[in-house]
Design a protein that fits this description.
This protein is mainly alpha-helical and 314 residues long. 73% of the residues lie in helices and 1% in strands. It contains 12 helices and 2 strands, in the order ααααααααααββαα. It has helices at residues 2-19, 35-69, 76-79, 93-123, 129-142, 146-161, 166-190, 194-202, 207-235, 239-244, 267-275, 280-313, and strands at residues 253-254, 257-258. The protein has a two-stranded antiparallel ribbon. Helix 2 crosses helix 12, helix 5 packs across helix 7 and helix 8 (194-202) packs antiparallel against helix 9 (207-235). The protein starts with a helix and ends with a helix.
């Protein structure tokens, strides 16, 4: 057997070598003298330069925020109230609390509506006219001007309730969060393998059980990614809150009691107000608040990226 194998090796190698007889391997070597290689290197260099140029404004803004905002960063800015004009010190603890509270209200409104709508869109037939209309409306809302969401909440809630409130601010932010949550959750539900749904149905599960016990748990990382992205957008919005929550120099409530029917401070509006003031202390606080807001958005986006990578790995 060994002799036969050794004799057969050259026979198998000869046809393989004959396949490359007409190929000039020297032509495959890279050389800048060849036009195709030279053009390739020039294009790669051009794309690299353009990419670096596009990153310059981003890193310059980040550097400016860190340089100017970090100078006034301390524990006091997280625990104290905004200072009055000509007053030193102070902070924006109430604005951080108000931002988190209104974003939480927006999440409570947009999350169940967005996820349930996503399940309906993912499970509906492709030729369903109603589903296509809902999907188209959600895509239109992704480019909806944020100030119009504030105007809508102002007419629907502020005028009806007789004043600015954190509830109106949360509703305005939920309008901006809803399309992101809905479209991202729909894609996550569609990515669930069909065999998992068929296996659940084969075991006798109803459609409701398939959704709650198979689809949503499997698509959870993708759904959370959309929620994190929507939270990052809502936390940085200013225009809707100017029409709904306005601003306040006081805490949202006392210990054990939160008054959600009063004007509420937020980081975005505080930056807008303090940046235009002629007082140096307020301008410094605006830079520090901008740095804190950027860090909050950055952390939220990083969490969303972690959930997205987890879904891809699974």
């Amino acid at each position: 057997m060994n002799i036969q194998n050794r004799q057969s090796e050259p026979l198998c190698a000869e046809p393989v070598l004959s396949m490359f007889e007409d190929i000039d391997f020297s032509q495959l070597e890279k050389s800048l003298l060849r036009p195709r290689t030279l053009i390739n290197h020039l294009l790669v260099a051009g794309v690299s330069v353009v990419t670096l140029a596009a990153l310059v404004p981003l890193f310059s803004v980040v550097w400016m925020l860190v340089f100017k905002g970090g100078q006034n960063l301390s524990l006091a800015v997280f625990t104290q109230l905004p200072p009055a004009p000509m007053e030193e010190g102070g902070g924006f603890g109430n604005a951080i609390l108000g931002t988190l509270f209104m974003v939480a209200i927006a999440t409570l409104i947009s999350l169940p509506i967005g996820v349930l709508s996503a399940v309906f869109l993912a499970q509906s037939k492709t030729e369903s006219g109603f589903a296509n209309t809902v999907r188209f409306a959600a895509k239109v809302l992704t480019g909806f001007p944020s100030i119009l969401a504030g105007v809508f909440a102002y007419g629907a809630l502020v005028l009806a309730m007789g004043g600015y409130s954190s509830i109106a601010g949360g509703v305005a932010l939920s309008i901006l969060m809803l399309p992101t949550v809905m479209l991202t959750a729909e894609e996550a539900v569609r990515m669930v393998p069909l065999k998992m749904k068929e296996a659940a149905i084969g075991m006798g599960a109803t459609n409701t059980q398939v959704v709650w016990m198979v689809l949503l748990p499997t698509a959870l990382p993708g759904i959370l990614t959309g929620v994190m992205l929507a939270l990052a957008r809502a936390a940085g919005e200013t225009a809707p809150l100017l029409f709904t929550a306005l601003f306040s120099n006081y805490w949202l409530g006392t210990i054990g009691h939160i008054d959600i029917r009063q004007p509420t401070a937020s980081l975005a509006v505080l930056i807008y107000n303090f940046a235009a003031m002629p007082f140096e202390n307020q301008v410094k606080l605006a830079w520090t608040a901008a740095l804190v807001l950027v860090l909050m958005v950055l952390v939220t986006n990083l969490i969303g990226q972690l959930f997205s990578r987890r879904q891809i790995q699974e």
